[in-house]
Amino acid sequence: MSLAARLMNVFAVPGEVFEEVKAASHSAANWLVPVLIASVVGVASVIIVFSQPAIQQQIHEKQVAAMEKKFDKEVQAGRMTKEQSDKALETMERFLGPTMMKISGSISFVFYSFVRVFFWGLVLWLAGRWMLKAQFGYLKAVEVAGLAGMIGVLGTIVSLLLRVNFSNPAASPSLALTVGEFDEKNTLHMLLAMVNLFELWQVGVMGAGLARLARAPFLRATLPVLVIWTIISVALGTLSSLAVRLGS
Question: Using an 8 Å Cβ cutoff, are 124 and 225 in contact?
């Protein structure tokens, strides 16, 4: 199976792909190419989203409101004059324009793409060794995480389409779509937003890869991956909701 075939077949027959990965010698292309694809798609997505006038306006209004509130507190506390507050606000607005959002967002996405594959590779490797009592190399687990990341690439494309269509920078293929009026201060809404359907699919594919590497049943191999993903999702959803409430 060629690399291109592995990248495509991971959507339809991941078990066959990972069976070949287990039998073959280590190949860095199995994780590096998916990460590079994810980075390119992610950067393109960031640029397109932050080029939408409606989205730019939404983000600008939120940023300005947050800064105004912060500077007003400084003025009321006597640590800053009104003139200094206005000047600081004007300066901050220059650094928070669309160009800076595109640059910072692109860098963050590339960094996230590389960190994510090694993090999930570590999760798979530790789960295999400690819970499934299997012996396989860490880099094999990284290959599985990398190939499974192609599901995330598709998820990024779908998220892009949703954000452009709804003019919402936070729109994603998650359970939050079932909420009529999404409220960032509502912890339940934020938790629903963390249940990304493509991430769940990716968890299942990583579980299939771990099952092949460890020669274990699919459900037994997938459970620890699902538990870690759930813990991370609940923590991020709760923290995001708390941050919004504290900032408002």
Answer: yes
Residue 154 contacts by C-beta under 8 Å, 6 or more apart in sequence? 11, 198
Q: Residue 183 corresponds to which tokens in the numbers above?
A: 């409220």
| Separation between Cα atoms, residue 182 and residue 177, nearest integer Å | 8
What pLDDT is recorded for position 15?
95
Q: Is the dihedral of CA 50, 56, 59, 63 positive or negative?
A: positive
Please tell me the distance from the alpha carbon of residue 200 to that of residue 121, in angstroms, as a whole number: 16
**To 5 degrees, how large is the angle CA 235–CA 233–CA 154?**
150
Q: Model confidence over 219-246: pLDDT tens digits?
A: 999 999 999 999 998 888 788 777 766 6
What are the domain boundaries of the chain? Answer: 3-247
* Bridge partner list, 174: 196
Q: Rounded to an integer, what distance in angstroms lies between the CA atom of residue 65 and that of residue 53?
A: 18
DSSP codes of every residue in 9-22: HHHH-HHHHHHHHH
Tokens of 222: 């997938």
What average pLDDT does range 75-81 have in this prediction? Answer: 81
Quickly count: other Cβ atoms within 10 Å of residue 204's Cβ.
17
Q: Which residues of 169-193 are buried (b: 16+ CB within 10 A; e: fewer)?
A: bbbbbbbbeeeeebebebbebbbbb
Measured torsion, CA atoms of residues 205, 8, 28, 229, in degrees rounded to the nearest 10: -20
**Residue 225 class from Cβ within 10 Å (0-12 exposed, 13-18 middle, 19+ buried)?**
buried
CA distances 188 to 121, 172, 226, Å, are: 30, 16, 19
- Paired strand residues for 206: none
Task: Note the pTM of the prediction, 2 decimals.
Answer: 0.89
